[in-house]
Amino acid sequence: MTGRLYSLSGFCIRHRRLVVSFWIVLAIGVSLLSSALGKQFADDLTLPGKDSQAATDLVADKFPEQANGSIPVLYKAEKGKITDSANEKTVKSSISELSNDKLITSINSPFTQATAGQISKDGTIAYASMVLRDAPGDLSDEDADHLVDKTHSSAPGIEVAVGGYLGDQVSSPSTESSEAVGLVMAMLVLALTFGTIVAMGLPILTAIFGLTVSTGLLTVFSNFATISTVAPTLATMIGLGVGIDYALFVVTRHRQAMHEGHEPQEAAARAAATAGGAVVFAGTTVILALLSLGLAGIPLVWTLGYSAAVAVAVAMLASVTLLPAILAMVGHGIDRLRIPLPHDTSAAHPSHGWRRWAEGVARHPVAAALFSVLILLVIALPVRNLDLGQEDDSAMPKSTDAHRAYVLTSEGFGVGNNGPLLIAMEVGARNDVMSLEQAIAKTKGIDEVTPATFDKSGDAAIFNAVPTTSPSSFATQDTINLLRDTTIPRALDGTQSAAHVGGSTAGNVDLADEIGDKLPQVIFTVVLLSFLVLVLAFRSIVVPLQAAVMNLLSIGAAYGLVTFVFQEGHGASLIGLEGAVPVVSFLPLVMFAILFGLSMDYEVFLLTQIKEAWHKSGDSDSSVIAGVTTSGRVITSAALIMVAVFFSFVLSGDPVVKQFGVGLAFAVAIDATIVRCMLVPAVMILMKRSNWWFPAWLDRIVPRIDIEGNEYFENRESGR
Fold this sequence. Notes:
It is a single chain. By secondary structure, the chain is an alpha+beta fold. The chain contains 23 helices and 11 strands.
């Protein structure tokens, strides 16, 4: 791999203007194409074999005009009641204007006998049910903004809010401020690390190119596939973090090579072949871990996995093609525009502080290991109470349509109307429908049941059951389980009818159950994959086993903190939440794949330094100390950047994004400090030569890989 990367980087350096021009054209071209096509992100809750999916399929087959669901448009009188003549006239005028829009299939009026239930008991709030031409995945952002703007402007003097998937689409918080804060924090860390403005700017420039291309590609893909609404934000977080980190590793090695006497072009080629090798190895591991999410068979989770994988792949390619070309163009100017700092940032400066730290761990390895494990276990304790749930619009920023629609619905019609349960029936006899309606109406946790609607043939019916609790409440999950396990089987026992509980709330409950079932499988696959990759890289059985256990400990600690902050609500107000919110069901699964992959960055960088020292000295203790000394400053800088980027997304108004931001930032901080700089060296000191135990039979069949290419250059320089 080293030889190929050296050749690739050499080509990029020789044709640096062409390579840089290619990336500029690619970034501009993808951006223009994505702008022309628009973005159409949507959440795919398809869950084959689940009860909610059976309800969805029945509605699509028997009630195709209702397959997309309806959009509630809330009207609240600012003065008097909504039924006052002036207010009623305004609402009717609004509905008439909206009904003429080609994007709207139908919209009913709350002021008819058939829709009398669409006016609150106190007469201040009413809602109209609007059916759109486009399904969630087909509605463009431009059309969504147009519809919401038109709805608001059509009812002057009335408070209006739009709910449903239309309200959610226009309420997605922007991430620009988070990206800006993350970049500024990364620039500060890079400035302190390199000490020059030019060196600081190179990783930022490379990451921005990669991020522009990857986000543009995802926007283009969203026009041809259903990609989750969270996917672009998650891809931005990961792409920005790894893009800067990967470039940091390459630039650091480039400056070291220049200090050793190599000219800028040769130094850049060597950096791309050595540190770039570690980047490609670690990046490929991250990509494989993310793609393993496809094994869960859950479309929503799969889109999150491959979207983040696209961002990592582009960042990796930019680090080994674009960055060497830029380094060659900059030449000796990389050390220009020095920043006056109290510490030495030159490539030759030894890390005395890290050497003292490593020597301290080596003197007290048992205490260091026990202390590290104790901290991780204490932080992980809350994970025992983790319950996977779902978010609702109550946690969205108060200024959004989604939140206002949630509040008005709760105020006028009860909190359960924000997530009514869809009961879809295959009807054997019409009396069965009435019996089921009555049984569900008497079920604990159900507020009311709406009249059933039959299809033309009379062999299918649908109606809504409104819970007494909110969509995010665990009590609502209990109600759904009670309906499925007890109420429906008893009511339809001995009949030819069958019924399914569907709707978005029930779908999210099924999603949480499915993820809970698939989580062990994905964990096992990712751990096994990482173990095999590390065996291949370091020709050891013990080191990969250590890495697997330590990664599980650090991820467990991250889960514990997310549970503590979000589910239990401790410190929630500090990150912009009013209180506790459920941990979204897909977070642990996606976080595990991301973190297990990202941990390879620091694992590979640290272990390659230790292994190189081991080959030179043959002494276990000194090689561990040398490895920590060499890699400590770079790992810390890279981790600070990743933490800054991830934590900046706490500024997002979306509670799901906040959970990813806090969870990923904390996990990286734990992994790069307690695990990599304390636990790993302590355990390796204790294991001595056993760290590198490798059976002879396995040594014969496993191919040899030198990740950072040191042997390649040693052989090349010696003429072998």
